[in-house]
Amino acid sequence: MHPAVRRFPLSVQHVFAMFGATVLVPILTGLNPGATLIASGVGTLLFHLITRGKVPAYLGSSFAFIAPLTLYVTKHHTPNQAVTGLISVSIVYGVFSALIAAIGFNRVKRLIPSVVVGPVVAIIGLSLAGTAVATDASTHWDVAIVSLAAAIISAVAGPRQLRIIPILVGIVVGYVYAIARGLVHFGNASASPWVQFPSFHAPAFSWQVVLAMAPIALVTMVEDLGHMFVLNEIIDRDVTQDPGFSSILLGNGVATLISALIGGPAETTYAENLGVLAMTRQFSSRIIQGAAVIAILLGLFGKFNAVIQSIPAAVVGGIGILLYGMIAAMGIRHMIEAKVDLTNTKNLIVVAVIFIIGIGAKNNGIAIATIVGLAIYWLLPDRTQTGAEDGGQAAHRS
Fold first, then answer.
1. How far apart, in Å, are the Cα atoms of 123 and each of 227, 231, 256, 357?
2. Is residue 147 part of a domain?
3. Distance CA 197, CA 167 (A)
4. Is the pLDDT of residue 198 over 70?
5. What confidence score (pLDDT) does residue 178 get?
6. Which residue range(s) make up the domain with 260?
7. Which of 30, 154, 368, 398 could be 238's S-S partner, Cβ–Cβ 3.0 to 4.6 Å?
8. DSSP category for residue 112
């Protein structure tokens, strides 16, 4: 069997993992969902080109820019100005990429202790718990449970062929069960065109839009760093060293630039797909690149797009419980491996504050929690005189 054929079901899993969140952003902001899917696929391929295929990450729609995009696209009806704002975001990424390449990421990394990295990785998963449980799974708990159980059984007790695609198994079984329950409606699929092309918008300069969007890039860069810490834990290799965090930022910036020109939102690495990596232990970048190609085709072919959109939220919620929980567990594992001393009061305070802010804050909670955790760690005096008082002060090690 050709390697591409063997990789296809693995790529499909990643498409399912990113699809809901990626198309939700254009639905909320007034952008074109088809263009957004195409942008995510093209952006991911460019990201992999710039990072030389060494970072198995998928790039999808960033939620951090929902408010300004909604304001300028839906409310003010100025999508051309929104394009300019997103271009300014990509420029910020490029500037910081060059800065980190010049000063060296190791200098930045030394400022990030393990007592901050661990809980930040954990809240990346935990912050999605409400979406998985309250928003999605709760719509039909029986469907969610069937999907979750199928994925777990496939991963733990299934034959080897199924153990590497448990997410796909869970989605298919949950989808079939939902059809039997009469919860799937194919009306949109029959009404959708076979082929649909995105509408393009030329940039129209506006300082107001630039000032509204460009600073948000600082927030998403912090989230990117957190995602890379998760990825390091999963693949047991430090991608911030090879190919380097500067390359990762540059890849994200270029992906956002192309997305803006195509008519999509800002791009960011996706925690949902990191969960798939953690579950399947299949780390080939070719698999992610395959998912990107599928996303581009889905963006062009309306009927296939509509069929995927017909998957009930409860199926996605059941799978999300597993994926997001895997990410949270990675953060806890990191603190254990780094021997973070939680009998140290300062360390305990850092972890506590990061957890509550990261989970409780509705907008950009992960980035805010990271910044606050670092501020507490470096500004709060440590009265402990034990040998473990640094709380895993060394930055993340892979």
1. 11, 14, 25, 9
2. yes
3. 30
4. no
5. 94
6. 3-315
7. 398
8. S
Q: Backbone phi, then psi, for 267, in 5-degree steps? A: -105, 150
**Residues 224, 171: Cα–Cα separation, whole Å:** 27
Q: Do 68 and 213 contact (CB within 8 A), yes or no?
A: yes
Instruction: Establish if 367 belongs to a structural domain.
Output: no
Question: Has residue 366 been placed in a domain?
Answer: no
> What is the C-alpha to C-alpha distance for residues 396 and 330, in angstroms, rounded to an integer?
13
Whether pTM > 0.85 for this model: the answer is no
Return the minimum-mean-pLDDT range out of 53-67, 349-363, 380-394: 380-394
Task: Please compute the mean of the pLDDT values over residues 327-338 and round it to a whole number.
Answer: 84
339 close to 388: Cβ distance less than 8 angstroms: yes
Residue 387 located in a structural domain = no
Q: Look at residue 153 and give its three-state secondary structure.
A: helix
Tally the domains of the chain: 1
Alpha-carbon gap, residue 34 to 75, rounded angstroms: 21
> Strands, DSSP E only, in the chain?
59-61, 267-269
Report the 10 Å Cβ neighbour count for 248: 29
**Gap between the terminal Cα atoms of the chain:** 34
Residues contacting residue 146 through CB under 8 Å, at least 6 positions apart: 173, 174, 177, 318
Q: How many CB atoms lie within 10 A of CB 286?
A: 16
Integer angstrom CA distances of residue 195 from 301, 304, 342, 374: 4, 10, 56, 49
- Could you please report the per-residue DSSP string of 279-338? HH----HHHHHHHHHHHHHHHH-HHHHHHHHTS-HHHHHHHHHHHHHHHHHHHHHHHHHT
Q: How many angstroms separate the CA atoms of 16 and 174, rounded?
A: 13
Asked whether the predicted pLDDT for residue 315 surpasses 50, the reply is: yes
Task: Give the Cα separation of 47 and 339 in Å (integer).
Answer: 34
- Angle made by CA atoms 143, 133, 354, in degrees to the nearest 5: 155
